[in-house]
Every structure is written in structure tokens, then in C-alpha cells.
Amino acid sequence: MGKSETLLIKEPKEIDIMTREVIRTDKAPAPVGPYNQAILASGQMLFVAGQIAIDPSLGDVVYTEDVVKQTEQVMSNIEAILTQAGATFADVVKTGVFLADMNDFAAVNAVYAKYFSEDTAPARACVEVSRLPKNVLVEIDCIAVIGG
């Protein structure tokens, strides 16, 4: 016996046009390459570029040997970008965590957990990479849904 499927076809009522807004704030570091801090798509989906431990007031990497303090700076940078876009950590649905050394996993998690409750913790991937920009120890990016 074959598998039965039902295909539902709806007539489009109107065409949705996706908008794209660049999000920038001086409360987070300027990008270190040809990209933006974040892009807000259709006023709802926020894509935050990977953040590293650059203090925006100094324009340079801080805490070069301390993954805990680097993670705190990264989360502060992400928070500034979320705020600029009208979002909070509760709106974050996905993060990507990139570590120079997987042995830092627990230390990074200890800081990361301060920003999310069990109910608001996003989906996440965490990988070890061979090298990060400016030789930092951690980089985190995220996707948020505003008003979702």
C-alpha cells in the first residue's frame, strides 16, 4: 500500500515584500570586516553578526587571556545590538558559539546562562574552531524574533 498525501494549495492574497534594515550602535564594536552589526529583516527577524571581546570605547580586544571576561564583553556587545533593534535576550531563538578551545565550554556556559532563563534559552550550536578573529577566545552570534 502506498503512502497517501494531501497537498493544500492556497491562492496568494497579497505579496509580502521583505524589508531589510541595517542595525548599528556605537555601544557595540564596529565590525572588523565588510559586514554590519546586525540586519533586521521585515521588522521581525534580527540577525546579529558574530561578536568578539572588543570594547567599543577602546576599539580593541580586551581580556586577551580570560575567557570569562571575554564572554561577558561579548554578551554586553550583543545586548547593545539587541537593544538598538528593540529586542532583548528573551527574543533570541538561536545562538552560535565559537570557541578557540572546547576546554572553555563550562566557563563560557557559566556566563552565557546569566542571560537566559530555562524558559527563554535559545537553540544553540557550540563548536571549537582553529582560530578566531584577532585571536580572541570566544565569538557568539545570534538570531532573534522580535514580537514573536
Automatic annotation (TrEMBL):
GO molecular function: deaminase activity
A single Gene Ontology CC term: cytosol
Transmembrane feature ranges: none
PROSITE patterns attached to this UniProt entry: UPF0076
InterPro entries in the cross-refs: RidA (IPR006056), RidA_CS (IPR019897), RutC-like_sf (IPR035959), YjgF/YER057c/UK114 (IPR006175)
Family: Belongs to the RutC family.
Protein name: Endoribonuclease L-PSP
UniProt source species: Dolichospermum planctonicum
